[in-house]
Amino acid sequence: MLKCFDKILLFKINFLLSYFWREAGNRVQSKRPVNLDIGTIALPLAAITSITHRISGIIVFVGMAGLLWLFDLSLSGEAGFASAAQVLGSAVMKFLLWGILTALAYHLVAGCKHLLMDLGLGETKEAAPVGARIVILLSSLLAIVLGFWIW
Amino acid sequence: MVTNVTSLGRNGLYDWLVQRISAVVLLVWFVYVGCYAALHEPLTYVQWQGLFTQTWMRIFTLIALLSLCAHAWIGLWTIATDYFSVHLMGKKATALRLLVQVACLAVLAVYLLWCIHILWSI
Fold first, then answer.
1. Which of B19, B52, B64, B109 could form a disulfide with B29 if both were Cys (CB 3.0 to 4.6 A apart)?
2. Is B114 on the interface with A (CB under 8 A)?
3. Is pTM, for the whole model, over 0.95?
């Protein structure tokens, strides 16, 4: 189901990008009207949560370097643990950590929905926006909890 | 088909299964460590170090990182083959995608070796 929404999204992105990659545009869609106003292209909520799942995955992949660095520092001894705490004293670092952990929390929640859908739960068209809303609600709550925990 | 050569198992169903199993391992690891940190708030060095010096936790963390590498590889493969496509970018897409995938592989190798080093030098 989600993969299906991805395909719709991909189709729209392909449609927009083909205009910029002139060769592809001339070959495939030279006589067709091109809508470049991305604001008028409505994505269903499930498609938005799906693309966010991908984006959050990339954030976690990159952010893992920072998390491992903190992990290394915090386990390098009593002094290291103290300096890790000191690093997290700065507002910028707090925000970065919050951002990475929020992306992780979102990825985990959206991933749980994927697993439930693999079990056959919530696969219908009617259930898709409901599932997407639950994912947004739960990950927002986790983002707030993480915010309280970090600050 | 260059697309299949860079997938983890050269097989969609296998990749699908590995993606799910690794996801569950990572979920359990993050929830466990998250709960541990939350229950021991404010966390001290002794508690934090005590968690990761246990042999089972070292092994669990290593399995979690191996899962992360497999999971990230499959996920990034999915994204790379979707967006760095010949249809979108023309012929240079394949070369660009292979470059990106090799870079991802290098990053994951560093993560794995780094984590092993951290865990066995506590």
1. B64
2. yes
3. no
Name every chain B residue with its beta carbon within 8 A of the beta carbon of A10: 82
Burial of residue B109 (CB within 10 Å: 0-12, 13-18, 19+) is: exposed
What are B76-119's pLDDT values in tens digits? 999 999 888 888 888 899 999 999 999 999 999 999 999 999 99
For the segment A115-145, what is each residue's pLDDT rounded down to a tens digit?
999 999 999 999 999 999 999 999 999 999 9
For chain B, how long is the longest CA-to-CA vector? 56
Contacts of A65 in chain B (CB under 8 A): 107, 111
Which pLDDT score is estimated for A104? 98
Which of A18, A72, A115 is facing B118, going by the closest CB pair?
A72
Determine the average pLDDT of the residues in A14-37.
58
CA angle (A65, B8, B101) in 5-degree steps: 50
- CB pair distance less than 8 Å for B90 and A24: yes
Token pair listed for B47: 């508690």
- A115 with B20: Cβ contact below 8 A: yes
pLDDT at A1: 45
**Axis-axis angle for helices B12-39, B55-83 (nearest 10):** 130
